[in-house]
User: Fold this.
Amino acid sequence: MAQFRTLAIHAGQQPDPVWGAVITPIVQTSTFAFEAPGKPREFDYSRSGNPTRQALESCLAALEGGTRGFAFATGMAAETTVLMLFAPGDEILVQSDLYGGTYRLLTSIFAPRGVRPRFVDLRDSAITAAAINNCTRGIWIESPTNPLMNLVDLGEISAIARKNGLITICDNTFLSPYFQRPLEFDIDIVVHSTTKYINGHSDVVGGALIVSSADLAERVAYLQNALGTCAAPQDCFLVLRGIRTLALRMEEHNRNALAIARWLERHPAVESVLHPGLESHPQYELGRKQMTGYGGTFSFWVRGGREAALRALSRCRLFILAESLGGVESLIEHPRTMTHASVPVEILDRMGICESLIRLSVGIEDSSDLIEDLTHALGA
Ligand SMILES: *Cc1c(COP(=O)(O)O)cnc(C)c1O
Assistant:
């Protein structure tokens, strides 16, 4: 099979059969003409399937090494769809250190309807195995976690799940398939917010699921059509355009972020840097085992608490104060009051998402300009 960089440009993207257009066209239609009564062509209605979406979905499946890919309107639409695989009474093991929107979806939308999250430390496989009971049906993994950059051992957790007949889901948004392919560690379903690195240009919100088996492909296809959570053709076109440079962008994000993390680690205003590519990260070895790079997102604690953090955030000129991550431009944010504001304060305190935590999404600008900006922001 072709290598990643080749698949990113060619998988699912044959020249258009009608005009020979080299770039997959935006097939902006809701419905498709039938050949005869009861005889649809390949597509009949764009909620059920659309050629632009299909090109993106095939490409995503190839990049993650899955059986089939699915594109959704947002990352949350992808998550909502995959959670519909579960029924009232089911329990899902999940770590509490996770994307704020996923936390909110599980606790305030699904839990009251009977699909309950049980929060465990998935870094510890003994604790994880002990948390499984008669109602447990799935394990939801995010690795690295957002914003604390903890890692979960994908192979270890999937082995526990396999033994107990549980579905494993891994949110791979932070690394993209370029740096981590969970299906190779026997995970069942990969989730993406394609809004982030996969599209990479901060001009689309989108989501994806990539599944390992034909059985899951059939169940997710049914849900995507029945729920109507799919992505629109224009957005699929843009995400597919972003994917063509995914490998190149990820290399640059990785290089810049690692250089900045090393620089911050030596800065007197910084208490500690959370980046799995630093030898000081407690799970550095695990990272080397299951990831081939680290992407551009990481966090650090500044000295001086809330005041120092807010001062640094407001003094940045190049880093833009904004939520989201994974775009070519650098962003800075305060998880406690921004991306993770929907998580209860007691849980934020317990996890270490305190007032002095800052998260960076390092873009692909020149790293010396980024370091100069942070030098000014952190002050003397
Ligand atoms: C952004 C994000 C999501 C949600 O995706 P949207 O496209 O914003 O709906 C889910 N998981 C992670 C890790 C994210 O960063």
Summary: Residues 325 and 361 are 5 Å apart (CA to CA).
